[in-house]
Amino acid sequence: MGVLAVAGADRAAFLQGQLTQDVRGLENGQARRAAGLTPKGKLLYFGWLAAEPERLLLLVPAERRGAVLAHLSRYAVLSKVSLTDATPEFALLALYGPAAPSLELPGAVVRLPAEGEIAAGALVPESARGGLLRALADAGSVPLSETSAEALRVESGRPRYGRDADETNLPDELGLESAISTTKGCYVGQEIVARLRTYGRVSRRLVGFRFPGGAVPAETVFPDPEKAGHELGRVTSSVESPRFGPIGLGFAARDVEDGAVLGGVGGPAAIVGPLPFA
After folding, report:
1. Which segments of the chain are extended strands (E)?
2. What's the alpha-carbon Rg for the chain, to the nearest Å?
3. Among 180, 226, 232, CA closest to 204
4. Closest CA to 15 of 107, 79, 64
5. Which of 85, 93, 157, 244 is the most buried (most CB within 10 A)?
């Protein structure tokens, strides 16, 4: 992920009006899930908000950090804040396994709470990366391959921005409840979020797919045979899971029930199910 640093006397008040999460009461070394929305309630990014003594750190998808920095800068013109790309200053590690949350880590570490398959996250100064890796090795940890990490991510149902989500998505389509405060004041896109939760529901939802006939590639679309131009489902991530076989993440239309079979009859097939996989 990329790390954007927000400093200045108005940093908390500024981000309070930008993020879906409540910024108040966030203490040094703490982190909360957060997202940024367009005025129409669509996702610009989602990630983490972490606190340092003199800065707030916004962790966003690495490929989005330039766009997010430009977006925030437009809103910050009249505020006493400075915005910088601090990505080179930090290393971010994902920790797996039941011992991770209680593991003692050396130096100045911002711990990220558990999320999906990740038992804990560790945000540290880049200069401390080597010491942290040595401490993890001494504790018996081993590196996880990208292939295994991706399989665990899909098994847990954790969406990745740029793969399972983009600016066309509403946060409720992805189940980002933990990133949205229902008690804070106004923020960009709040009216749409509140209206959906009070009067409506989203037209699609993130689901798990099992592929009984073998792996189905990402971007596979399952059209509605009864309604031209309408999708019943779309695959966004596809992996071979050691536990569950060929599975994936994607979206299913609101009226498609868990257990429904999409496709088939000579083409790829997918069985819709809840997340996480079990």
Report:
1. 2-7, 31-37, 43-51, 55-60, 82-85, 90-95, 110-112, 120-125, 204-210, 221-223, 231-241, 245-253, 261-263, 269-273
2. 20
3. 232
4. 79
5. 157
- Sort strands 43-51 and 231-241 into parallel, antiparallel or unpaired: unpaired
- Is pLDDT above 90 for 143? yes
Q: State both tokens at 128.
A: 């401390």
Beta-strand ranges (E) seen in 38-185 are 43-51, 55-60, 82-85, 90-95, 110-112, 120-125
Q: Are 42 and 169 in contact (CB under 8 A)?
A: yes
d(CA 108, CA 124): 6
Cα angle, residue 18 at apex, residues 12 and 22 outer, rounded to 5°: 55
Tokens of 118: 């990740």
* Domain architecture of the chain: domains with CATH: 2-155 (3.30.1360.120), 203-278 (2.40.30.110)
Burial of 219 (0-12, 13-18, 19+ CB in 10 A): exposed
On the question of pLDDT at 272 being above 80, the answer is: yes
Phi first, then psi: give them for residue 6, nearest 5 degrees. -120, 115
Q: How confident is the model over 80-99, as pLDDT tens digits?
A: 999 999 999 999 999 999 99
Give the H or E element holding residue 16: helix 11-16
Place of tokens 């962790």: 59
